Amino acid sequence: MNDLVSRAIERFLAEESVPLQAGAENLDPAGMLHDAARRLDKPVDELVEDLGAWLVRQDEIWRLLRFCGQDFLDFLLRLEELPDRIRLVTDDLDIPEIGLSRSDDGLLWISFSHGQAVWTALLSGLLRAMADDYGALCVITPRDGGLCVDISDSAFATGRTFHLSPRIQAS
What we know:
Elements: H1 2-15, H2 29-40, H3 44-56, H4 59-66, H5 72-77, H6 82-89, E1 98-102, E2 108-112, H7 116-134, E3 137-143, E4 146-153, H8 166-170
Antiparallel strand pairs: 1-2, 2-4, 3-4
Helix pairs in contact: 1-2, 2-3, 3-7
């Protein structure tokens, strides 16, 4: 697990031009993120949120995510399936189960079975990027070990076109 996560973090930091201290590539993933956050004078959770948004920009990951729903609300309502979808790609990540609930006022509440802090930050960045991708206007707020999502306008902007195969886009 650490190799896959470490490579992703290294690639993220390199693409974002974040300098690491000498030997930082030998640190565990959390150590690399802490080192980078210190160098950027930025809280670690903000850097992890940026990592979540960066993950959506990776075509293979974007396709896996967009396959989860027709629109942003549909995507959110299928978030509970995300850990199993990730396990189809790699089974050596410790992905928490995702719980969803909806309040009477239409807010969607997302909770995690474990590892709330890092997953809250990572999923917050990922959801912000996916909301933009779908063209939805929403507010995503970390609360009580999870996230609260308030969708103001699900068709605020034109979303990015999705085709399951990249070859369809080329034709």
